[in-house]
Amino acid sequence: MRYFTSDLHLAHPFVAATRGFWKPGMRPDRDIIEAPDGINQLRRELSEYRFNEMVDTEAHDRLIIRRINAVCGKNDDLYIAGDLSAGGHKSLRRALYLLDDLTVPHSRIHLILGNHDGFHIRNTNAYDFASVCIGSISPNLFLTLENGMPAIVSHTPRRAYIEQGIELKDVASNSMDKALLRYAPDVPDGIVHLYGHTHGKSPDEFHDGTSVNIGLDAWRLRPVSEHQIIETLTRMQTTDCA
User: Fold this and answer.
1) What is the mean pLDDT of residues 179-195?
2) What is the pTM of this model?
3) 16-43: pLDDT as tens digits
């Protein structure tokens, strides 16, 4: 079986905080957490060390690994649509180390690069990626779903939606940033698009019948199977395009 996910953000304290992972007694007041830019503001007010000390990043990372292992086995393929870590050498090394705890073999892990991965292989991350022998690394990936539908897997939403400046609710502040245009794919009509990046809670953010958010936040911090994606597309095409 093929499984898909995005935005693991292993070894990334800020994202762990947005997902509610605080150390005992360190959780900020609710009004801070629930404010539109509350956690970001808190991070700006504190030193990096102080903020990171408040966050239980280890608990976040262990949960992500456990939930992947709960559904993905040694004979499955796992497609990660970007943002494996926070970016930077230390975070990337930690994230790649954690991949050793996955049941899925490294050779069956396929990484589509996101903004926190640098969107491309460069001098600062080439050695790290090469050291773990991931099955494949690419900027975008083209495949055919088991029902015969062609699909593109990328980190960002499709180029057309970013160009149009479509506004999404309850998503990451840089979800539709114009700076992403150089990396966003052109997706022809009728092609399924599997993407992440937004940290939105809904798999069906654009209501177009073909775009599916495969990010962890849209699937209760779990990968989504190919069967689930096809079921979601069927439901979307029935309701969104009626």
Assistant:
1) 95
2) 0.94
3) 999 999 999 999 998 888 887 899 999 9
10 Å CB burial of residue 119 (0-12, 13-18, 19+) is middle
Tell me the mean pLDDT in the region 80-108: 94
Q: What is the 3-state secondary structure (H, E, C) of the chain?
A: CEEEECCCCECCHHHHHHCCCECCCCCCCHHHHHCCCHHHHHHHHCCHHHHHHHECHHHHHHHHHHHHHHHCCCCCEEEECCCCECCCHHHHHHHHHHHHHCCCCHHHEEEECCHHHCCCCCCCCHHHHHHHCCCEEECCEEEECCCCCEEEECCCCCHHHHHHCCCCCCCCCCCCCHHHHHCCCCCCCCCEEEECCCCCCCCCCCCCCCEEECCHHHHCCCCEEHHHHHHHHHHHHHHCCC
Domain boundaries, the chain: 2-9+76-239
Compute the distance between CA of residue 47 and CA of residue 53 in angstroms, rounded to an integer: 10
**To which residue do tokens 């393929």 refer?**
77
Confidence check: pLDDT of 205 > 60:
yes
2-9+76-239 belongs to which homologous superfamily? Metallo-dependent phosphatases (3.60.21.10)
Vertex 224: Cα angle to 221 and 230 (nearest 5): 145
